[in-house]
Amino acid sequence: MSDDTKKQDTAADAEVEKEMEGVPEHLRDDRGSEEDASDDLSAALESLKSDLEAAKQETLYAKAETQNVRRRMEKDIQDARTYAATGFARDILSIADNLARAIDAIPQELREDEKFKGLVAGIEATQRELDKVFAQHGVSRIAAMGLPLDPNQHQAMMEVPTDEVEPGTIVQEMQAGYMIRDRLLRPSMVGVAKKPD
């Protein structure tokens, strides 16, 4: 190495030292060794790798949550379509009840009277049409008579003392119950057998 080069290096070192005056020791980069720099780079690389892994996990969780939300939304939409007529069907049940009562109230002699045969046939046809429309929309009548009481479908209104059937068996139906597909629309109001006193 020439003297000029040594002088330049010494001058550069002196200039650097002069600039570093007043800088606290903990802020000075005195490492100087490649091993320390390599360790710092390795630590930084490991930190970045762990951050990347955490970001990947968060992305997977976000994708899974998005998929779950989409599935729930699709199910809600399907349920809304399937059970859209629930309110209307519940309201129309009282009309069906009144129509059934009207048919039951027609005495046999009026059914046979030529003047009323058309009226009776019309009321019965209306009842059949209503039942058909109910079936098209998934509304079905709940079976009750002679079956054991099912609190999910029947509402016990009274107990009837009798020895003819097992206690807990439905012996009287005061109001028909209905389901809309697999959901209860209205429970059957029933009388249930009990052992006589």
Helix/strand layout:
Layout: H1 3-20, H2 34-82, H3 86-105, H4 108-112, H5 114-136, E1 139-141, E2 154-161, E3 170-175, E4 178-180, E5 183-186, E6 188-194
Parallel strand pairs: 2-6
Antiparallel strand pairs: 1-4, 3-6, 4-5
Helix pairs in contact: 3-5
Region (Disordered): 1-48
Subunit structure: Homodimer.
Biased composition (Basic and acidic residues): 1-31
What can you see in these coordinates?
The chain is α+β, with helices and mostly antiparallel strands and 197 residues long. Helices cover 58% and strands 16% of the residues. The chain contains five helices and six strands, in the order αααααββββββ. It has helices spanning 3-20, 34-82, 86-105, 108-112, 114-136; strands spanning 139-141, 154-161, 170-175, 178-180, 183-186, 188-194. The strands form two sheets. The chain has a three-stranded antiparallel sheet with strand order 1-4-5. A hairpin with a 2-residue loop joins β4 (178-180) and β5 (183-186). α3 packs antiparallel against α5. It is rod-shaped, with a radius of gyration of 43 Å.
The portion of residues forming beta strands comes to 15-25%
> Given the helix and strand composition, which structural class is it?
alpha+beta
Helicity level, as a percent range?
55-70%
Oligomer: single chain
Radius of gyration: 43 Å
Strand arrangement, major sheet: 1-4-5
User: Which residues sit in consecutive blocks of at least 5 with pLDDT less than 50?
Assistant: none
Instruction: Give the overall average pLDDT.
Output: 86
**Biggest β-sheet, characterized?**
3 strands, antiparallel
Q: How many alpha or pi helices?
A: 5
Would you report the number of β strands? 6
Distance between the termini: 124 Å
What general outline do the C-alpha atoms trace? rod-shaped
Order of helices and strands: HHHHHEEEEEE
